[in-house]
Amino acid sequence: MPEDLHRHATLVDQHEPPRPKTVRARHAASLLVWREAGEATEILMGMRGSRHRFMPNRLVYPGGAVDRADLSAPFATGLSRRTEAALHRNANAKLAHGLGIAAARELREETGLSLGTPPALDGLDYLARAVTPTDSPIRFNARFFCVHASRVTGTLGGDGELDNLRFYDMREALALDLAMPTRRMLEQLRGWLAMSEAERDERTHVRVLKDRGWKME
């Protein structure tokens, strides 16, 4: 390479901004509590406050990161066979248990509703997984579960992290300005509800929302 071209290339390299470091995605769990209301289906959701670093001012499902204690926390009943099998495609047995516990814990903390003490996890069904894009400063590898409202007890309240906490008609929620992952999981729930129990048992793949598009695992 001629000397002047080499000097130019060196100067360009020196002025290139450093590439941002990719943040590791934390394991997390969210729970869609649903119930029938006449011919409609309602989902428990709440609004995250403006001070939250992740998804402020967004309508979301109760959920959060898996804590270390969740991995070995006690339970009344374990995950169902089909939920456990689906989780094991991307999580070992210890993490699968921790994800179920985290979903139950976050439900209790954020909404005041409970799956029991210790929680009964056998009513949880695994809908799908979503991984925050790599260019985000806060990232989660989140598993989304659903459970029928008949499996929970308590009075809506929680720790105040979610405002406007109530059951939203699915059609009402889909008409709102939802974050893309929230909308996609609501659509996944709608498809899951249309399945028979046999079809749910026969599911061989779970959808993963990654790099802003669906993949299968």
Structure commentary:
Helix content is 29%, strand content 27%. It is α+β, with helices and mostly antiparallel strands. The protein has a single domain (3-216), classed as Nucleoside Triphosphate Pyrophosphohydrolase (Alpha-Beta Complex), CATH 3.90.79. 32% of the residues are buried.
Main structural class: alpha+beta
Task: Kindly report the name of the CATH homologous superfamily.
Answer: Nucleoside Triphosphate Pyrophosphohydrolase
Quick one: CATH class? Answer: Alpha Beta
CATH topology: Nucleoside Triphosphate Pyrophosphohydrolase
| Subunit arrangement of the protein | single chain
Mean pLDDT: 90
Topology readout:
Elements: H1 3-15, E1 26-37, E2 40-48, E3 59-60, E4 63-65, H2 81-87, H3 93-111, E5 125-131, E6 140-148, E7 162-169, H4 170-174, H5 180-193, H6 197-201, E8 207-210, E9 213-216
Give the key terms.
217 residues, Nucleoside Triphosphate Pyrophosphohydrolase, alpha+beta, 9-stranded mixed β-sheet, globular, 9 strands
